[in-house]
Amino acid sequence: MEGYARETHAHGLGDPVTKLDLLNRASDLSSRRVPYVWATVVRAEKPTSAKPGDCAVILADGTIEGFVGGSCAESSVRTESLKALGKEKTTTLLITPGDGLAKYEVRPGEVSVSNPCLSGGTIEIFLEPALPQPLMLLLGKAPIASALAEIAPLVGFDVRELEVGSEIPDDADAVILASHGGDEEQCLQMAIAKGVRYIALVASHKRGSAVLSGLAIDGVPSKLVHTPAGLDIGAKTPGEVAVSIIAEVIASRPTTRESLDPVDSTFTQVPLSAIDLVCGMEVAIAQSSLHLDLDGESYYFCGTGCKKAFAANPQSYLDREP
Description:
single chain; alpha/beta; Rossmann fold; 6-stranded mixed β-sheet; 5-stranded parallel β-sheet; 8 helices; 17 strands; 25% strand; elongated; disordered N terminus
């Protein structure tokens, strides 16, 4: 970050935002398991307002904090960032003015957009989705639970302690009980009711069967609980049992992670988009996008110029719709 002197601005806010501010913001979002996209300008051909190294954070609602170009470029960044977040894939976005795409060869992993609003320069921006790691909740302090807490983060899990009676987050990927007694039934019932994908009880066949014998919620069978926990790999030590459980968590999950509603969950759906009726650009349908409500319909725009033009004579643009 040394030498970074330019100030950026949070979208819709007046206070200056530095790169350090954005890094701290990203760290805070990650700690709270909030998804976002980190956007970095990697190339800018004059004339452009953006410079290599400029960056921004884009949230799941389309809010942009930072600076990666003017309002029209920002609109393309918002649209493609939300797509990248929904698909959970990094993207390189090439924004060219007018018919400038004819001069560039589209490379693998790159999305190219011709932006008629740009002042004449070309911008290349790297979009990197930052999604929370799968959340593993552990109940108990038995040696196997301690081994899980130590090993699971090494393979990409966010491991957190589960207290008896505490709420289970909507985005929990796995709930594992290794308390050797206590209020296991209550935690199992809560996990089943929450629809947690992987639920396990660390116990012998005999004790596990006894715990699950009367366990069911609204007709949901107790067979949804893995017990004994873990794949049968002949594990003997707590560390080996932990490895077998982690393997079972991984083996049992779907090949693609389901996207959830960004309003009340961690992950995001691939967003809907609209066409700016003035310039023809694709614009994300998001509250943070410029839009105008007219006769019960919402119309979205890449920038204030297009919005003003439409507002001045909407019928002339509506008549052009196919």
